[in-house]
Amino acid sequence: RTFTSVSADGWRPRELALLPDEWFDELLAIFERAVAARPWPAVLEECEMSFIPKMEEAKTAADLRPIAVLSVMLRAWTSAKARKLLDWLHTFLPWGILGGMRQKAPSDAFLELACAMENAFPRSSPFGGATADIGKLFVRVSRVGLAKLCVGLGVPDEFVRTWMELFRTTR
Question: What percent of the chain shows pLDDT beyond 90?
Answer without folding.
Answer: 1
